[in-house]
């Protein structure tokens, strides 16, 4: 069973429990509004993983509602023939009535009640950003895009360091960017017999997770065990096909019509960790190996950024040994794109004209979607419902 509840498009119903005007709701990353006489509401995320039982959703809802909170949306997943329950809830609350420490205690009591394997709550406006370390080799297109997204404030992380086994001079664009923003850059020359893993561990010991932005070295099992936290890797191929080196060449030789990129967790088995995100681009017989690589690099950048963002928003839950439960964002806010998620997941058909056959792309940029019109002339987002972040 896979249930997804979206926020209602009806404003009175949407804010019925919160009893707050729209302007008092504080979205992630949004500053306090000093002009408002009412205390702003904060936004929280809670993920829950426990043995399946009757009444879990009701207890989760009661835990939030009893402290004056209001659930904006929830995603629940109970695998077929598996006695296990997964959920991710988004809610708003008054931090003056429900202090952060008290919230942790309330959700901890709930986790004890259901013998939860995982119960995590995050309040983006109050909690510190995730600290990450980035490892990269010669190819730096993923690193450059990641740094740009971070600079624009689109990734809720603090980059503590960049580590590379490829030397970059002080006048390179990457080196200048890192120096300008005070991000340490460490060059560690690796050999077949010495991967410098001990030094890497020292540099990343205070990070929350690692990102391999085209780091072309295989991390040992000892390293993974010593680090003990999640490591996210971008593979320039559509796994489980085309594992290992030169996947674009493998795909080109196979004559595929779709190429892609895969972001996954790192495990001891090469390119076999649980998949977080996958994206594809169309190719044809007219493409050569060079255009294959170019299209692949564009997809890699998007795939890595989206995976990091999803991970930080607690949208990725481990499922069994090699799977993940991923909760996607939804659609455009009627108040304008500034209050919306950064992507649209939809296959809704245009309703402006009965003869119009246009669909919104499976994934599209909010701004592009809002400005674009179907062939019948209506804006593509007219029939969407808002899902607040």
From TrEMBL:
Coiled coil ranges: none
Keyword presence, Protease: no
Domain ACT residues, every copy: 45-125
Keywords of this entry: Hydrolase, One-carbon metabolism
Gene Ontology MF annotations: formyltetrahydrofolate deformylase activity
GO biological process: 'de novo' IMP biosynthetic process; one-carbon metabolic process
Pfam families found in the cross-reference section: Formyl_trans_N (PF00551)
Gene3D superfamilies with a match to the protein in the record: 3.30.70.260, Formyl transferase, N-terminal domain (3.40.50.170)
Name under which the protein is recorded: ACT domain-containing protein
Lineage of the organism: Eukaryota, Viridiplantae, Streptophyta, Embryophyta, Tracheophyta
